[in-house]
TrEMBL record:
<dbReference type="GO" id="GO:0005829">
    <property type="term" value="C:cytosol"/>
</dbReference>
<dbReference type="GO" id="GO:0034353">
    <property type="term" value="F:mRNA 5'-diphosphatase activity"/>
</dbReference>
<keyword id="KW-0539">Nucleus</keyword>
<keyword id="KW-0540">Nuclease</keyword>
<protein>
    <recommendedName>
        <fullName>Decapping nuclease</fullName>
        <ecNumber>3.6.1.-</ecNumber>
    </recommendedName>
</protein>
<comment type="similarity">
    <text>Belongs to the DXO/Dom3Z family.</text>
</comment>
<dbReference type="InterPro" id="IPR013961">
    <property type="entry name" value="RAI1"/>
</dbReference>
<dbReference type="GO" id="GO:0004518">
    <property type="term" value="F:nuclease activity"/>
</dbReference>
<dbReference type="GO" id="GO:0000956">
    <property type="term" value="P:nuclear-transcribed mRNA catabolic process"/>
</dbReference>
<keyword id="KW-0479">Metal-binding</keyword>
<keyword id="KW-0694">RNA-binding</keyword>
<dbReference type="GO" id="GO:0005634">
    <property type="term" value="C:nucleus"/>
</dbReference>
<feature type="domain" description="RAI1-like">
    <location>
        <begin position="1"/>
        <end position="301"/>
    </location>
</feature>
<comment type="function">
    <text>Decapping enzyme for NAD-capped RNAs: specifically hydrolyzes the nicotinamide adenine dinucleotide (NAD) cap from a subset of RNAs by removing the entire NAD moiety from the 5'-end of an NAD-capped RNA.</text>
</comment>
<dbReference type="Pfam" id="PF08652">
    <property type="entry name" value="RAI1"/>
</dbReference>
<dbReference type="GO" id="GO:0110155">
    <property type="term" value="P:NAD-cap decapping"/>
</dbReference>
<keyword id="KW-0547">Nucleotide-binding</keyword>
Length: 307
């Protein structure tokens, strides 16, 4: 598979918070949300937090992160805390300074998905069609972490046509990744060490939070040509991580952060609470009486919400 094909024709991903898919879904499925989150002896659903899986992954990765800061804003409405991550000045600067090779490598991941996915189980992939970064599929999940009940959404790459229909619904999904090939499966091979530590850590957390059971990886060379495929069960990743991953550690980090948010976020919308973290420093919280650029909820959401 040549992951370079179609690079010039790719359609870039543009995310507009005013057209947030999760909040649109909630408004269209309010009865379903209430039924699935209904609290005992109450007509109202019990939800502590609403967010995206990517935000949870960012928090969980904090224990490993040494370079990248993050900024997350929160607001409360009807006892539910809504979380949204924003790009920091440092992240914006880094994104604007991406080299052509770095942009190409981002494209490689999307192109790999194009090669191995099809619209239906009995159809073939249309790898010659332009890669469209705007086309995404999201699943909406109910989860519990520590004392917290969450409604969150995760992007998924594809469905396994051979998945067991009797298993939990999310186990039908697959995560698709690319990685540089390594020469030897030995601790002395630098590429193999990177794969076992950095990749296993990131892939495990991302997949575990969405209940996805396995990752299909396209192993590529330096020129962006996939030379072989591999399937890695998510449950095996901690053992493959060379001791760099303890599953409870990132989950505890997320739970601790949510504890902190609950203590800080006491006033209802439109008050915004801005949480900022920089490697080597504690998380800070700043209350914003005027949201400004840090608007968490899209316009019209609260006025159309019935719970």
């Amino acid at each position: 598979m040549d992951l370079n094909e179609g690079y010039e024709d790719a359609i870039a991903k543009v995310f507009d918070k005013s057209e947030d898919t999760l909040y649109s879904w909630i408004l269209k499925h309010q009865k379903e949300v209430c039924d699935n989150f209904r609290a005992r002896n109450s007509n109202k659903p019990h939800i502590d937090f609403v967010c995206y899986r990517g935000l949870l992954k960012t928090i969980g990765s904090t224990i490993y992160e040494k370079n990248q800061d993050w900024l997350i804003c929160a607001t409360k409405f009807n006892s539910v805390i809504y979380l949204c991550d924003f790009r920091t000045e440092d992240k914006i600067k880094k994104m604007s300074q991406l080299t052509k090779k770095e942009k190409l490598m981002i494209f490689w991941g999307m192109k790999f998905e194009k090669y191995v996915t099809a619209n239906t189980p009995d159809s073939e992939p249309k790898s010659s069609e332009p890669v469209n970064g705007k086309e995404k599929y999201f699943t909406v999940l109910k989860g519990r972490l520590g004392k917290h009940t969450l409604l969150y959404s995760a992007e998924v790459d594809g469905k396994d046509p051979l998945a067991d229909a009797n298993k939990p619904p999310t186990e039908c999904y697959l995560e698709l990744k690319t990685s540089k090939m390594y020469q030897n499966a030995a601790a002395t091979d630098n590429e193999y060490r990177k794969f076992c530590t950095l990749k296993m850590r990131a892939w495990w957390l991302q997949s575990f939070l969405a209940g996805i059971p396995k990752v299909v990886c396209g192993f590529r060379d330096d020129l962006g040509i996939v030379r072989k495929l591999g399937t890695i069960p998510v449950a095996d990743m901690p053992d493959k991580s060379m001791g760099s991953l303890s599953p409870s550690s990132p989950l505890n980090a997320i739970s601790s952060f949510l504890d902190f948010v609950k203590k800080c976020v006491v006033e209802d919308a439109p008050t915004i609470y801005k949480f900022y973290w920089k490697p080597g420093n504690p998380v800070t919280c700043e209350k914003l009486n005027q949201p400004g650029e840090y608007q968490v909820l899209p316009e019209g959401f609260t006025s159309n919400l019935e719970f």
